[in-house]
Design brief:
By secondary structure, the chain is an alpha+beta fold. The chain contains 13 helices and 21 strands. It has two domains: 4-258 and 409-413, no CATH class; 263-381, no CATH class. The strands form five sheets. Strands 1, 4, 5, 6, 8, 9, 10, 11 and 12 form a nine-stranded mixed beta sheet that branches. Helix 3 runs parallel beside helix 4 and helix 4 (131-144) crosses helix 7.
Amino acid sequence: MTEIRPFQGIHYNPEKISNPSKVMCPPYDVISAAQQDGLHNKNEYNFIHLEHAKDKAGDSPDQNKYTRAKDLLNQWLSNGVLVQDENPAIYYYRQEYKVQGERHSRLGFIAAMKIQDAKDSKIFPHENTHAAAKEDRFKLWTSVGANLSPIFVCFSDRERKVEKIFITHLAVTKPLFDVTDDDGVKHLFWKLDDHKLVSQIVASLSNQSLFIADGHHRYEVACEIRRQKIAKIGKPTGQEPFNYVMTYFTNIDSRDLKIFPMHRIVTKLPGQLSFLEEFFRMDRIKAKNDFMVLLAKAGQNEHAFGLYTKEGYMLLRLKNKSLIDKVIQEGSRDYRRLDATILKYFVFDKLGVKSEDIIYTKDSIEVITQVDEGIADAGFIMNPVKISQLKAVALNGEKMPPKTTYFYPKVLSGLVSHKIA
């Protein structure tokens, strides 16, 4: 059974931090090394010092970036830079942004979601994960005893119950935080601790199927922390904080839920691409703008992706859908018909492209630049995954290829944290 609850959030103290824009940061997994340096130098209280601290010479198992994060969290709580709410709350979160000049406003909320045993779970992931990233989050969360950033989950609210509570009771009030990030996204954050209203939100998600959009590594880490805690204490009540993980929820039925495609940059092509003509209709396109329009149009009814090399733009459209089941022998029909799956089996596997030679990016300009500068041999430009595809693959109990989806905008780190120990 799906269960969520309010929690006593830890967040920046508005009386101590006059400009929250200086202390919030993007999620750790989208921060480049250069951005990490800039954020560390931006402000001594920037959340990056907890969320994505740096290694130092002489670090040891007893003294390292994880133990420093623990000490810093306790210090900030002690000196009042951070405060913990007295009453359990649910935290409403609205993001205002533009995509291709069009304005959007995505509404969601942050609560604690109960972790479910796999065999009975109604929480559905959709992407595979990497061990190194999980190890990093596990060390950090166990050291600080808290979920520092939420996972990202979609739920269904066709009657807009959650939205109506926000509009009626919070929309006209001053938010706790009002932050505009470097991408121009406006983040507005409110606390709701009215027990009656919170109970209505909790009830609206009861027994729903939930789909993990982002934060798969963090969810698996939360599951492992819970498993180890249960093994250690024997018979938990089920209400201990470690049974829950801090989660951002947003409406899967909203038009403002945006998925960007994740493009593939191939640094080394181990063979020639002439074999592609056997499987794909290949059309050379001169101008980038024309290319992007034609790619999007083709993706409405066909399996298509773009190829960029120093020879220019090429639109690839699968000749015959019956080829899919001949070439791809594993997975469900839904999995086999993902463009990312088709690209892997029809192109990368046949070429022998190594995983370490693939760079993932949401930025098509980066694809073109890397090829033009000779850093990469080719770039594959993708169409976005549809919400219906995400749901179908997840409900089948399957995982998409890594880095298939990019939900935009990302949830800001530093808004609130959840103690689990």
